[in-house]
Amino acid sequence: MPMKTLTYAGPIKAAGMILLAALQACGGGDDNPSETSAQPVVLASDDFTQGTGKWKIEQQDAAGTVTAQGGVLDIVQPSGATVWFKQKFSGDYEIRFTAVPVPITFAGTRFVDRISDLNVFWNATVPGAANPDPTAATSDAALASYNPLYLYYVGFGANSNTTTRLRRNDGTAARPQITGYATAGSATADDKAGGMTPDTQLVANTPTRVRIVSRAPTAADPANVKWYANDKLIFSYADPARYAEGWFAFRTTTSHFQLRDFSVVALPSN
Fold first, then answer.
1. Helices (H), the chain
2. Cβ(163)–Cβ(179) below 8 Å
3. Which pTM does this prediction carry?
């Protein structure tokens, strides 16, 4: 797949200790490659051949493009972009898709052959609102504009592919980080999972198969959030005040992604 160059001249109650005690952060290793039955019930899907009608597109820079054709959702964005799926999900379910980072150069910026920021929101809601649907209003797609939401947020290969982090946004500007992986130059005290590895990084022009599990915890498995890349368990988290339903979005920053094979399937009851 050829490198694309875009000419661009513009900018880019009981949480606390209880949350930390409930944390389970895992990397590497296979863990239950599929949590569904042989023929799972499909709750939603998009083969990206019929346009973007199932999605709400929010772009920070009008020079960006989002198209869906030929089996590919193609996102090119010099700044920030959020692409919301319009359907709400609840119950026990698994989100699946494949993402390919395409190296891109943004003229007039420091970004050359950049791959970065395969990011997702899920179980996103507007707390305390009569209508909890975050797609009911339109955002300017700046990351801070989503601070008022409740949501889970993974930034995979973010910050120019130097961090992979799990956050539980709580409706404030804090955007609390649960754990993460980072290179030495990008690491903070919240990056408790360790350094970046081949399992937690993007590879140019190479598919990353993502699976996101949202389900009720059990005594045998208290994790209600699991996040896989290429069938490797990257994050497993037991949230004592879990977000059990909401909306999903792709999110990226200063990047080019091609997404395929989006589906959401029901998981068998615990």
1. 16-22, 158-161
2. no
3. 0.88
